[in-house]
Amino acid sequence: MEPIVRIKGLSHRYSTSWAIRDINIEIPRTGILGLLGSNGAGKSTTMNILCGVLTPTTGEVIINGIDLSKAPEKAKQEIGFLPQTPPLYLDLTVDEYLKHCAILRSVEKSQLKAAMDEVKERCALTHISKRLIKNLSGGYKQRVGIAQAIIHKPKLVVFDEPTNGLDPNQILEVRALIKDIATDKAVILSTHILTEVQYLCKDIVMIESGRIVFADTMEAFDNYIAPHSMLVIMENAPTVDVLQAIEGITRVDFLTEKQLRIYFNGDRNISEAIVLESARQGWRLRELNMEKNSLDETFAQLSRISN
Ligand SMILES: Nc1ncnc2c1ncn2[C@@H]1O[C@H](COP(=O)(O)OP(=O)(O)OP(=O)(O)O)[C@@H](O)[C@H]1O
Whose CA is nearest to atom 24 of ligand 1? Predict the structure, then answer.
């Protein structure tokens, strides 16, 4: 299926320095794409261009077949945006605010009530329609922020750090809501929180120093960097020095007398060498399990590669 967004050759320069260089992304019509990167990587610049807030130095953004630079108003109708700080009017009630947003987003007058009822239902806000936004909890404020982002039925919704500052329960609720929204819309989730991406995203694009360093499925990301440690149980384990004499082993930590964590330099044949050596020297190997890199380690490693 044709992607909802094509970002082609996007680069942006603030005065003299480049914030992003040659960014290419295709966004599928449903599901969540995680835009991951450390502070200053270029996420906000990319999202601001995508949402039509910033004009790129070079490159193009095509949203649902519409060129954002040629028909910005029409293209922007297809996008909903929840910035890091939701643009809420604290002195309005939920209903007043959503009505205001719907009018701003050109929802027809005859459709206003239906549009408001629908987003309130979806975001579980119906029972607080008449409450002032300033009196709502952080989680509910965020739901109102999400509701304004989808009130005009956009095909793409962009969330910037949507769970920032929420408590653990609120985080779960907001994540569930985003997951639900992604069943019939494309969602971009910009974050530096790896567990969030791991929990929510189908695809992942990682930006570092303004360039894409990884773009693939979440599963591929998780497996991207080969394991470099294993957990081993030996009844008759040798000393650290003996193990470290095996080529490729970089470090050995004894967790108990019989359980060890062995780090190696990425060569998977190392397990065979350990099995052979164990048989030869009578270490009585009982178990050997490769350990997958945690997402955090992968993230740190990819960041290092790009620097
Ligand atoms: N208005 C600006 N003028 C000059 N440089 C800017 C401006 N906005 C961002 N930059 C620079 O561009 C680069 C990318 O910044 P950007 O805000 O896009 O990154 P980010 O990944 O969103 O980071 P964060 O998570 O901290 O918001 C950084 O080096 C930043 O200092």
Answer: 39
The tokens of 227 are what?
A: 């394991």
Beta strand pairing status for 259-264 and 249-254? antiparallel
What's the CATH number of domain 5-222, 3.40.50.300, 3.90.550.10, 3.50.50.60, 3.10.50.30? Answer: 3.40.50.300
- What is the rounded distance in angstroms from the CA atom of residue 209 to the CA atom of residue 288? 38
Find out whether 47 and 125 touch, Cβ atoms under 8 Å.
no
Annotated domain spans of the chain: 5-222, 229-291
Single pTM value for the model:
0.77
Segment holding 100, helix H or strand E: helix 94-104
CA–CA distance, 136 with 170 (Å, rounded to integer): 12
Which residues lie across from 187 on neighbouring strands?
Answer: 32, 157
Contact 59 CB / ligand 1 (< 6 Å): no
Asked whether 191 lines ligand 1 (CB < 6 A), one says no
Residue 295's pLDDT band, with cuts at 50, 70 and 90, is low
Express each pLDDT in 65-124 by its tens digit: 999 999 999 999 999 999 888 889 999 999 999 999 999 999 999 999 999 999 999 999
Is the CATH number 3.30.70 carried by domain 229-291? yes
Interface confidence (ipTM) of the complex: 0.96
